[in-house]
Specification:
The complex is a heterodimer.
Chain A lengths: L2 E5 L11 H12 L8 H10 L4 E4 L3 E2 H4 L1 E2 L3 H10 L4 E3 L10 H11 L5 E3 L1 H4 L6 H13 L4 E4 L19 H6 L5 E4 L6 H10 L3 E4 L8 H12 L2 H7 L4 E2 L9 H9 L5 H15 L6
Parallel strand pairs in A: 1-2, 2-5, 6-7, 7-8, 8-9, 9-10
Antiparallel strand pairs in A: 3-4
Helix pairs in contact in A: 5-7, 10-12
Chain B lengths: L1 E2 L1 H11 L4 E7 L4 E7 L2 H14 L10 E3 L4 E3 L2 H10 L2 E7 L2 E2 L5 E7 L8 E7 L1
Antiparallel strand pairs in B: 1-8, 2-6, 2-9, 3-8, 4-5, 6-7
The chains are: A alpha/beta, B alpha+beta.
Chain lengths: ~280, ~130
């Protein structure tokens, strides 16, 4: 089985209600020429990429942009349309006065499988105790994993000052039972991401990074120049998750890039299947 | 490789045009329209040839983030294979039917799919 832990569902026809909504998503996600496509075509693309399940990530930009890229209610609706294929996370705005109640609704009422944050576009420091620690306590209590978009994000209003993975160290230490992932491999802070994943059992890293060149070329660069493929094979094979960042790039191209990056077959099996199952609490399904 | 000769034939017959031409053109730059014999083995050979002429791995310049799109382009091979195939075909119409040679099939070649595609089929004549 192959699980893609990082994709965004903003341009599915069935989930686009109005032109204004589509424009809001284009402008704030920063994807301008993508055509809307129906869920059936998306599922065929997923299958063509050899992928079995996809984690779909929304984002609440209420404070910074005045709206959500997709509501938690819509994420629940989307998951129900294809429960065998879609694993839907929710999102809250930590700066909102209703953040904690929104979080409880996300978990208990909608049953969404995780929480998606992008500190750089939501403009918060993930180690802000006053705002975030109550959120982390609830997430840890309910064993709900968190995806943190760290490193470089393409969203137009995103700021790197919020996105250094080292900002997550206190979170990892203070919430040892809270699983979270560092998206984009924390690029360019790739070594920092590796350090945290090695040091803390609850920290994972996903591969949704592509900033220069083709996917294969970029992965070859990262896993031979910035770090070594052997670091992953030998020390971090249980901590890396396959993530594509679709629709910024096709899932098949990112999958192939990972397969050509020089990892052992056993490592790839963990990245594609065993690690995501553990991270997403899918054991027994 | 998608055989579409029968689709074109049906459209021509529905048009009631007896003598004329039918133009088939794809509206995309990562598909091809080509004519060849409709054989499974030949389809494999055509795909192999395209991959030999335009290898999957090469330092293509069209492999970078496109700010106007907000995403990375990594489909240079699709564009270049489409360039080699061409984007259109034209056939005469006689007695209300497409004049195909005995071995001819019209192919839409998907080079970057799966995607939703638009093909223009224009029938003109009397």
């Amino acid at each position: 089985m192959i699980i893609d832990v990082h994709a965004h569902p903003y341009f599915l026809k069935e989930m686009c209600g109005s032109e204004e909504q589509v424009k809001f998503r284009r402008d704030n996600f920063g994807l301008y020429k993508i055509a809307l496509q129906d869920i059936d075509l998306f599922k065929r693309q997923i299958a063509a990429a050899g992928i079995d399940k996809v984690v779909l990530l929304p984002l609440d930009l209420s404070s910074t942009a005045g709206g959500t890229l997709m509501s938690n209610h819509d994420m629940k609706y989307l998951e129900d349309l294809a429960p065998d294929t879609f694993i839907c996370f929710g999102s809250i705005d930590p700066n909102s006065k209703t953040a904690l109640s929104d979080l409880r609704t996300l978990i208990k009422d909608f049953g969404l499988k995780g929480i998606n944050f992008n500190p750089s576009s939501q403009h918060f420091f993930p180690n802000d105790k006053a705002i975030l620690y109550p959120v982390y306590e609830i997430a840890q209590k309910y064993n709900v994993p968190i995806c943190f978009h760290m490193g470089m994000s393409w969203e137009p209003n995103s700021l790197l000052q919020y996105a250094n993975p080292l900002l997550l160290e206190n979170v990892a230490k203070d919430f040892p039972d809270l699983k979270f992932s560092i998206s984009h491999f924390g690029w360019p802070w790739v070594v920092e991401s590796c350090i945290l994943a090695m040091k803390y059992t609850n920290v994972y890293i996903d591969t949704s990074m592509l900033y220069f060149d083709s996917p294969r070329e970029f992965f070859k660069y990262v896993f031979s120049s910035q770090i070594q493929a052997s670091w992953i094979d030998r020390s971090l094979s249980n901590k890396v998750l396959f993530g594509s960042n679709y629709p910024r790039i096709e899932q098949l191209r990112m999958r192939e890039a990972l397969e050509y990056a020089g990892f052992r077959e056993e490592t790839l099996h963990k990245i594609f299947e065993l690690n995501p199952i553990r991270f997403l609490n899918l054991q027994g399904e | 490789m998608i055989r579409m000769g029968s689709i074109v034939s049906d459209i021509v017959q529905e048009s009631s045009i007896q003598t004329g031409v039918v133009n088939i053109i794809t509206l995309h730059t990562t598909t091809g329209i080509t004519v060849n014999e409709g054989l499974d083995c030949l389809e494999l050979d055509i795909v192999d040839l395209l991959k030999k002429l335009v290898p999957d791995e090469s330092p293509y310049v069209h492999a970078h983030f496109l700010p106007s799109y907000g995403r990375t382009s990594a489909n240079a091979t699709s564009h270049l294979r489409g360039l080699l195939l061409g984007n259109n075909a034209i056939f005469p119409i006689q007695n209300g039917k497409v004049l195909f040679g005995g071995a001819q099939e019209i192919y839409l070649v998907e080079l970057d799919g799966p995607q939703e595609r638009k093909i223009s089929i224009v029938v003109s004549g009397d």
